[in-house]
């Protein structure tokens, strides 16, 4: 019991506290943004919010349980987790697969749908930490970097791309490149990998008329009338939602865009609803929370000398913070619509569970560092202070 309730490090509580606050804030915003769409779909105003709350009730205990495992546990099971995650991803191409919005990256299990690609993110980042730590002394040679990282990561990303989910594939690519950087790979090797990826991405987008027209509409600034009615509809309504919020917002629950004007208001474009209801102040607070979350990740990353912990922590940090940046950039129109949720805030059970489990892994590293510090601390017994001995007075 003493070990269970032992005081953790400040970095542990900083990461845990910000995570819990973002989850609770996300539940409030999902409830506010999804009432109308939920009622239009199944006649229940609170169905989406109830599902998200259920996933949070499951995910938070899973995060705390994951934080109790030692780092050796995650490293030992990295290969198995990756194989299981990719096996689940293959199920989307079977009868269990569900297609939505042109993407086939969900599976239906009973009354619930799950997105296996979220588990692929977690399994891939832990696997990268394990492999790069094992081959640390050989990473100056590009062949040892390419094998097995190239084929395995390429297969995982390829399975996601086969389902048409370009946004998730982009996040997976960012995770791989970030893990290579923090593992100490030479920049020329990373630069060559980026060049190859850019060429493949160009071929992938140029072979799809829909993706090409979406990118062209984004590059034109969504000014053409035909673009507004088609590819820019969601982006422009997101801008209108942000603009109508002003500095202090129209008030929680008072959004007009959520009345079926803004598609995916509770998912990919929840930041637009935050800006509309809570204004510039609320949007800046959300940005500040993710900055604090990044600071917590960096503090934990800098506190360890273990390569596996450092690479895995950096990969999870790039995943969560990078995906938040992409989501907000899409809402602002800085990037074309990619379809990635705002971590810990947007509606989506698979994404929330995967994010919480990933943060639980980082919390386990923070606990391990604390335990090592406690075990290595030496408390010497107090040395009694000798009293000065006075010389005897000379006899007169």
Précis, in short:
This protein is mainly α. Helices cover 66% and strands 4% of the residues. Residues 377-389 have low confidence and may be disordered.
Structure overview:
This protein has 396 residues and is mostly helical. The protein has one domain. The chain is built from 15 helices and three strands. A hairpin with a 2-residue loop joins β1 and β2. α4 runs antiparallel to α5 and α5 runs antiparallel to α7. The protein is globular. About 3% of the residues have low confidence.
Number of domains: 1
The shape, in one word, is globular
The largest pleated sheet is described as:
3 strands, antiparallel
* Approximate strand percentage: under 5%
Low-confidence stretches: 377-389
Q: How many separate helices? A: 15
Percent in helix = 55-70%
* Mean pLDDT over all positions: 88
Sequence of secondary-structure elements: HHHHEEEHHHHHHHHHHH
Our Rg estimate from Cα atoms comes to 25 Å
Q: How far apart, in Å, are the first and last alpha carbons?
A: 69 Å
Strand order of the largest sheet: 1-2-3
How many strand segments? 3
Alpha-beta content class: mainly alpha
Notable characteristics:
globular, single chain, 396 residues, three-stranded antiparallel sheet
Task: Please describe the topology of this protein.
Elements: H1 10-42, H2 47-66, H3 71-76, H4 78-90, E1 97-100, E2 103-109, E3 112-114, H5 116-134, H6 142-146, H7 149-162, H8 166-182, H9 187-206, H10 209-219, H11 225-229, H12 233-245, H13 270-302, H14 307-332, H15 349-376
Antiparallel strand pairs: 1-2, 2-3
């Amino acid at each position: 019991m003493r070990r269970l309730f032992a005081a953790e490090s400040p970095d542990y509580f900083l990461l845990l506290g910000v995570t819990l606050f973002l989850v609770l804030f996300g539940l409030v915003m999902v409830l506010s943004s999804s009432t109308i769409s939920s009622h239009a779909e199944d006649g229940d105003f609170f169905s989406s919010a109830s599902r998200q709350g259920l996933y949070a009730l499951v995910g938070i205990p899973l995060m705390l349980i994951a934080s109790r495992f030692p780092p050796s546990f995650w490293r030992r099971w990295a290969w198995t987790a990756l194989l299981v995650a990719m096996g689940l991803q293959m199920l989307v191409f079977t009868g269990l697969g569900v297609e939505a919005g042109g993407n086939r990256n969900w599976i239906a299990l009973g009354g619930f749908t799950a997105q296996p690609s979220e588990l692929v993110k977690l399994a891939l980042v832990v696997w990268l930490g394990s492999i790069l730590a094992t081959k640390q002394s050989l990473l100056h040679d590009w062949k040892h970097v390419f094998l097995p990282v190239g084929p395995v990561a390429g297969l995982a990303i390829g399975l996601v791309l086969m389902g048409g989910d370009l946004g998730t594939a982009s996040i997976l690519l960012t995770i791989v490149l970030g893990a290579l950087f923090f593992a100490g790979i030479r920049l020329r090797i990373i630069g060559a990998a980026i060049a190859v990826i850019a060429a493949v991405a160009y071929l992938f987008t140029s072979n799809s008329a829909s993706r090409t027209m979406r990118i062209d509409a984004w590059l034109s600034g969504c000014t053409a009338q035909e673009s507004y009615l088609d590819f820019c509809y969601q982006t422009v309504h997101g801008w209108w939602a942000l603009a109508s919020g002003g500095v202090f917002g129209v008030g929680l629950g008072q959004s007009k865009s959520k009345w079926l004007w803004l598609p995916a208001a509770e998912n990919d474009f929840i930041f637009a609803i935050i800006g509309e209801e809570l204004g510039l102040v609320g949007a800046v607070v959300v940005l500040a929370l993710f900055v604090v979350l990044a600071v917590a990740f960096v503090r934990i990353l800098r506190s360890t000398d273990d390569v596996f912990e450092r690479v895995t922590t950096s990969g999870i940090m790039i995943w969560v913070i990078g995906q938040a940046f992409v989501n907000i950039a899409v809402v602002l129109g800085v990037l074309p619509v990619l379809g990635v949720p705002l971590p810990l805030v947007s509606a989506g059970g698979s994404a929330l569970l995967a994010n919480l489990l990933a943060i639980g892994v980082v919390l386990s590293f923070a606990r391990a560092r604390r335990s090592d510090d406690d075990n290595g601390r030496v408390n010497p017994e107090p040395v009694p202070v000798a009293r000065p001995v006075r010389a005897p007075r000379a006899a007169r």
